[in-house]
C-alpha cells in the first residue's frame, strides 16, 4: 500500500475494466487535442504571414529615421540632421548584424507630376533599386519596363497614377517639388516602368526615382537620406535587433531613431494579439468540451464502483487516497489521449509545415494591412502550441475528475455495502 | 515650411485657406478709395451699417479691380530666407498672372490663375503644368501661401457676420476691431476672423485668422501705407503662420498701377510662357 505508484496502477487497471469506454473517451479527447494543435498552428502560420506581408512589401521590419521625421516629414529632417550620415558605412554596419537580411536607403518628397496631357500630386520615393530588393518586395510588382536606373532621370510610376496621367513607358514627365533650399525643383524624367503594389493609395500616387536623382531634385546631398529600411530573418526579433542597432550605430549620427515594426505598424501588433486571443478561445472551447466528456466518464465509473468505494472506506482507506485513485485514472486517460492526439496530428502538422496548401486559387490574393496576403494553409513550426495544448488537456482531465472523486469519498459505506 | 505640403497627412489649419489672401497677393492692392464718403468720426458708436461699410472698404482695398505692379516677396523660414522679385497682373478676382524676375535661376517662372485653376510655367524644362487638385495644398513659390490660398474666393462682407468688438485707442492709435463670424452656409474654412482697422484713414493694420477650434492659425499684418497711382494702400503685407513661430512671408509692393484696362484674354497660357 505504500508504493508511490499505487494510485496510478489502480487507475490504469480501472481504465482497463471498460476498455471500449476508455478508448472512446480518449479518442474524443485526442481529436480535441489534434484539432487545437492543428488550428492553432494554422492560425499562427497565418499571423506570421500577415506580419511578413505587412512589412515585406514596403515598410521593412526595422526602420531608421530622424526622430522628428514623422509625422510632418519635413524635407530636411534627414538621418543625422544637418550633418547627414555616412550612408555607405551606415548600411554596411547594419548588414553586419547576423539577424539582418538587407538594408536600403530612401529619400522622400512630395510634388506634382505632369505628363503631356495632365498632372497629379505625387509621392516621390528615391530608392537604390539593388538594395531595395534585399528588403522589400514591391519592385517585384513591376508590370512593364524596369526600376529607375542610376543617373538616367527615370521614374517608375504606380499603375493607377500612370493611367491617370495617360502616360506610358518611354514617355516624358515633369516633376515639380519644393526643394530643401526653398526653390521649386523641376526636372524632366522618362518613365522607365509601371508598378502595381496592390495598395491603392500607393498605386495612385507613387513615383519611384533613383535615390541620387531625387536628392538632386530636392537639393539634398549624398549623405542626406530620410530613411533606411531593414529586413530581418525573423520578424519577431525586430524589437531586439532595433535596440541592438541603435547602440551599434549611435556613434555614426546623433539624430537617429531605430524602430521595430511593432512601433511603426501598431495595427499589425493588434492583429498579432487578435490571433493570440483566437488561439486561447479555441483552446478554451475544445477543452471545455473535453472537461465535460471526462467528467461524464469518471462520474459513470465512480457510480459503478459505489460498492468498491464503500469496501475500501470500510477497510479504512483515507479519503485522500480515494481521490488520488480517481484522479489518477483521469490523469492516465488524459496522457493516453495526448499520445493518441499527437499520433493523429503529427502527420497533418508535419505535412502542412513542409507542404503548405495554397488556397489562393479559391480565396484569391487579398490586400490586408498594406500587404498582399495569400491564403496559404501552413503550420508555423512551434513547440509552444502542442506543449500548451497537452498540458491544458491533462490539467483539464484532472480537474474534471475532481467532482466525481468527491462523490466517491462521500459514498455512505454502510448503505452501499447493504446494496441499498 | 513643410516639405510635403501636397500630401502632408493632416494639413495644418493655417494652410487650409485664407479667404482674402488670394486677392491680397495676386490681385495686388486696388483701392476703391472713397475717404470722403466715410468721414472718420470717432464720436459716436459705430453702427452695424457703418461697420459693414468699413469692412467692405478694406475688403475691396485688398481685392481690387484690375492692377499691374511689382512686388518683392521675402520668405523667412527656420532654415532659409529667400527673396524674389515678381511682376504681377490682375483682373478682378478671377484672373491673375505672376512672373518671377529674380533670382535669375528662377526668372521666367510664372503662375497663372483663371477662376479656380492654376498653371505654372517652368522655363528650365520649358513646360506648363496645371496644378492638380491634390497639389492645391502645396506651397506657392516656397512661400507660406498655398495654391488654395490663391484661388479661394469669398467676401468678408457677404460671407461673415460683422460686429464691432472694440472701438478706441490701441497703442495710441484709434482703431476699430471687428469680429467676423462666418454665416452658416458660407464657403469659408475659418472659424472666425478678427480685423483691426485704423480709424484715421481706414487702413487695415492686422487680420487674425482662427481655425474651427477657435485657435489662432495665422496673422496678417499691414504696414507702410503709401499712395500708389493715386490710392492709399498698405505696401507691406506680412503673413505669420502660428504653427511656425518666427517664420513669415512678406510682400512688398514696389510699384502699382490700377484700372489698367487689360482684357481677360491677356491671361492666357501663351502669356504665361512669356509670349505676347
Number of DSSP-assigned strands of chain A: 14
CATH class label of the domain at 13-35 and 46-82 and 138-255 in chain B: Mainly Beta
Task: Output the number of helix runs of chain B.
Answer: 5
End-to-end C-alpha gap of chain A: 29 Å
Tell me about this structure.
The complex is a heterodimer of chains A (about 425) and B (about 280). Chain A has about 425 residues and is α+β, with helices and mostly antiparallel strands. Chain A folds into two domains: about 5-55 and about 270-415, no CATH class; about 60-265, no CATH class. Helices cover about 50% and strands about 20% of the residues of chain A. Chain A contains 15 helices and 14 strands. A six-stranded mixed barrel of chain A has the order 2-3-8-5-7-6, surrounded by four helices. A two-stranded antiparallel sheet of chain A has the order 11-14. The model of chain A has no long low-confidence stretch (mean pLDDT about 90). Chain B is mainly beta. Chain B has a domain at about 15-35 and about 45-80 and about 140-255: Clam (outer membrane lipoprotein receptor (LolB), chain A), CATH 2.50.20. Helix content of chain B is about 15%, strand content about 40%. Chain B has helices spanning about 15, 20-25, 50-65, 145-150, 270; strands spanning about 65-75, 80-90, 95-100, 110-115, 115-120, 125-130, 160-170, 175-180, 190-200, 205-210, 215-230, 230-240, 250-260. Chain B has a 13-stranded antiparallel β-sheet. In chain B, β4 (about 110-115) and β5 form a beta hairpin. The model of chain B is unreliable at about 1-25 and about 25-45 (pLDDT under 50). The interface of A and B includes residues 123, 180 and 182 of A.
Amino acid at each position: 500500500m505504500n508504493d508511490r505508484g499505487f494510485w496510478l496502477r489502480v487507475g490504469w487497471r480501472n481504465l482497463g475494466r471498460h476498455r471500449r469506454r476508455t478508448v472512446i473517451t480518449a479518442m474524443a479527447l485526442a481529436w480535441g487535442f489534434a484539432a487545437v494543435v492543428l488550428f492553432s498552428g494554422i492560425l499562427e502560420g497565418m499571423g506570421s504571414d500577415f506580419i511578413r506581408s505587412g512589412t515585406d512589401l514596403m515598410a521593412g521590419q526595422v526602420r531608421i529615421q530622424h526622430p522628428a521625421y514623422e509625422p510632418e516629414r519635413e524635407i530636411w529632417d534627414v538621418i543625422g540632421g544637418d550633418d547627414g550620415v555616412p550612408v555607405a558605412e551606415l548600411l554596411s554596419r547594419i548588414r553586419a548584424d547576423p539577424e539582418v537580411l538587407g538594408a536600403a536607403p530612401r529619400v522622400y518628397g512630395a510634388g506634382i507630376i505632369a505628363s503631356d496631357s495632365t498632372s497629379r500630386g505625387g509621392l516621390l520615393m528615391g530608392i537604390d533599386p539593388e538594395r531595395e530588393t534585399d528588403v522589400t518586395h514591391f519592385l517585384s510588382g513591376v508590370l512593364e519596363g524596369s526600376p529607375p536606373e542610376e543617373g538616367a532621370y527615370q521614374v517608375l510610376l504606380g499603375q493607377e497614377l500612370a493611367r491617370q496621367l495617360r502616360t506610358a513607358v518611354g514617355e516624358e514627365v515633369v516633376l515639380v517639388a519644393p526643394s530643401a533650399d526653398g526653390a521649386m525643383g523641376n526636372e524632366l524624367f522618362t518613365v522607365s516602368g509601371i508598378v502595381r503594389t496592390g495598395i491603392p493609395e500607393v498605386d495612385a500616387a507613387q513615383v519611384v526615382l533613383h535615390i541620387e536623382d531625387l536628392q538632386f531634385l530636392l537639393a539634398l546631398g549624398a549623405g542626406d537620406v530620410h530613411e533606411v529600411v531593414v529586413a530581418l530573418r525573423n520578424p519577431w526579433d525586430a524589437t531586439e535587433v532595433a535596440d541592438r542597432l541603435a547602440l551599434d550605430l549611435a556613434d555614426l549620427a546623433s539624430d537617429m531613431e531605430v524602430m521595430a515594426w511593432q512601433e511603426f505598424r501598431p495595427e499589425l501588433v493588434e492583429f498579432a494579439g487578435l490571433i493570440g486571443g483566437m488561439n486561447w478561445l479555441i483552446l478554451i472551447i475544445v477543452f471545455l468540451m473535453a472537461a465535460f466528456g471526462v467528467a461524464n466518464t469518471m462520474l459513470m465509473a465512480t457510480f459503478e464502483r459505489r460498492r468498491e468505494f464503500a469496501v475500501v472506506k470500510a477497510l479504512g482507506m483515507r479519503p485522500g487516497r480515494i481521490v488520488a485513485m480517481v484522479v489518477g485514472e483521469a490523469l492516465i486517460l488524459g496522457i493516453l489521449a495526448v499520445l493518441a492526439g499527437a499520433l493523429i496530428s503529427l502527420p497533418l502538422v508535419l505535412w502542412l509545415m513542409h507542404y503548405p496548401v495554397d488556397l489562393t486559387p479559391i480565396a484569391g490574393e487579398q490586400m490586408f494591412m498594406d500587404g498582399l496576403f495569400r491564403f496559404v494553409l501552413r503550420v508555423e513550426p512551434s513547440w509552444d502550441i502542442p506543449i500548451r495544448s497537452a498540458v491544458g488537456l491533462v490539467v483539464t482531465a484532472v480537474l474534471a475528475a475532481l467532482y466525481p472523486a468527491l462523490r466517491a469519498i462521500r459514498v455512505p459505506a454502510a448503505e452501499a455495502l447493504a446494496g441499498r | 515650411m513643410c516639405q510635403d505640403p501636397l500630401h502632408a497627412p493632416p494639413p495644418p489649419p493655417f494652410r487650409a485657406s485664407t479667404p482674402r489672401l488670394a486677392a491680397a497677393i495676386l490681385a495686388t492692392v486696388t483701392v476703391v478709395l472713397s475717404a470722403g464718403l466715410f468721414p472718420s468720426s470717432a464720436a459716436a458708436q459705430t453702427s452695424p451699417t457703418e461697420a459693414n461699410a468699413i469692412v467692405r472698404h478694406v475688403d475691396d482695398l485688398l481685392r481690387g479691380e484690375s492692377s499691374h505692379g511689382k512686388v518683392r516677396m521675402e520668405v523667412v523660414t527656420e532654415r532659409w530666407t529667400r527673396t524674389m522679385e515678381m511682376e504681377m497682373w490682375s483682373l478682378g478676382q478671377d484672373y491673375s498672372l505672376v512672373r518671377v524676375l529674380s533670382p535669375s535661376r528662377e526668372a521666367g517662372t510664372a503662375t497663372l490663375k483663371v477662376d479656380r485653376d492654376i498653371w505654372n510655367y517652368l522655363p528650365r524644362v520649358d513646360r506648363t503644368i496645371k496644378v492638380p487638385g491634390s497639389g492645391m495644398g502645396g506651397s506657392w513659390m516656397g512661400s507660406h501661401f498655398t495654391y488654395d490660398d490663391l484661388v479661394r474666393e469669398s467676401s468678408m462682407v457677404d460671407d461673415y457676420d460683422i460686429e464691432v468688438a472694440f472701438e478706441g485707442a490701441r497703442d495710441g492709435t484709434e482703431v476699430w476691431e471687428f469680429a467676423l463670424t462666418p454665416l452658416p452656409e458660407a464657403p469659408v474654412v475659418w472659424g472666425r476672423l478678427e480685423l483691426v482697422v485704423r480709424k484715421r484713414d481706414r487702413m487695415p493694420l492686422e487680420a487674425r485668422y482662427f481655425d474651427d477650434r477657435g485657435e489662432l492659425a495665422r496673422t496678417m499684418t499691414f504696414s507702410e501705407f503709401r499712395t500708389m497711382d493715386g490710392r492709399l494702400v498698405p505696401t507691406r503685407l506680412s503673413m505669420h503662420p502660428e504653427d511656425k513661430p518666427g517664420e513669415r512671408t512678406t510682400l512688398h509692393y514696389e510699384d502699382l498701377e490700377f484700372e489698367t484696362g487689360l482684357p481677360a484674354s491677356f491671361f492666357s497660357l501663351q502669356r504665361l510662357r512669356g509670349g505676347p
